[in-house]
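Narrative progress, year one. The postdoctoral researcher (J.K.) led the effort to move from monomer predictions toward full complexes, under supervision of the PI. The following entry was the first complex the group processed end to end, covering 418 residues in total.
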Amino acid sequence: MLALLAQVTLVHFVTVRGVEPSLVLVAVVWFAIRVNTQRAAIYGLAAGLGEDILAIGTGGAWTISTTIVAVIAGALSRGFFADSLPLVCVITAIATLVRLLVFWVVMAFEHYPSGLAVLHFHEAWVAAALNAFVMLVAMIVARRFDTA
Amino acid sequence: MTIFTYRDERRLFALITVIIVAALLALVQMNAQRSGQASPLTTVGTSVVAFVEMATSTIFDGVRGGSSAVLQLPQLERENGTLRSANLVLEKENQRLHEVAAEYASQGVAKPLVDLYPNALVARVIGFPPEGTSRSVTIDRGTSGGVHKDDGVVADGGIVGRVESADPFSSKVVLVTDYTSRFPAVTRRGRFWGIARGNLSSVRVEYIPQDAPIKIGDIVVTGEGRSFHAGVPIGRIVRIERGDETLYQTAILKPAVELGALDRVVVVPK
């Protein structure tokens, strides 16, 4: 909820090449890799639904894409340690790409006008790098607090 | 897949239930999206979040202003003396400008937007779309304040967009640069018609006849449409795309309003 509120009020002012980092996705992946799959799905569902409620014209695109990504992240996390910096950053980047892919596919089904595929493709890579960076910073900060 | 290795079937059933609930909620949202109306979930959610957004926005502005003031305290003290002396000069200048402004107002040249548009409502921008997938903003006026779907939104200088959905205490405004945005448009010089379409960072005016002698620098205004009366500036032409094998030409506009720095806007009920 905090990540969602920050996303719609503050993160708008922090963009790189017109792309905002997604605190919502980072939060979902953060929790999804630390819990079992069904709880991860619940987190993804709640976060995605919240984004759909606050967005314009997305229908259920964020709900579907975020839930799917949370399930995948939750399932994948059973095979590695959730406190591994490089692994979690890679998972975050992949989750970003998968989520945006599903999002725009659903948007296409909802009759979003075509013609921006290349732009969305480029934005997705920037978003993946940004989200991985945010996750990296978040994990480093969390470790500091853990050791303190 | 890992999920098929669960020994406890209850967990699997729980996961399936979650996915079914997700699908149902998504269907409700998509159904509302297709019918062009806000879903019950959206109405309830936005009403609650609007208050939190207003509070967050106010606190953020306060903290940002307060912290910058503390950091600049030594410099502010030095500037204070200079400004005091400058203030006397400016007060005299201010009196003169008030007289000039009053003269312009009496001639109907410099009327504020709220005077120009009857029933206009001033609103504050309190939120932005998550993750910037659309060009839109949330304003702090809703149906309880007299805002309706498809009302036009302007700022000093020109068109901002139109109200896409109005909830009780907030409304979502699709900016003129959004990819789904469409307005009838006409060049102020020559009155050549076209359709203004959002292109994320600019506005494209399409379907202008190939033989229309439009030029870079021409101002494009709204035509009479669903959200706006005719004559509100959309932007200025910065590029023209002409093809030899097409019936139409396209003008690329720089929006008349700085849409990245919106603070207060005016809702113009049609």
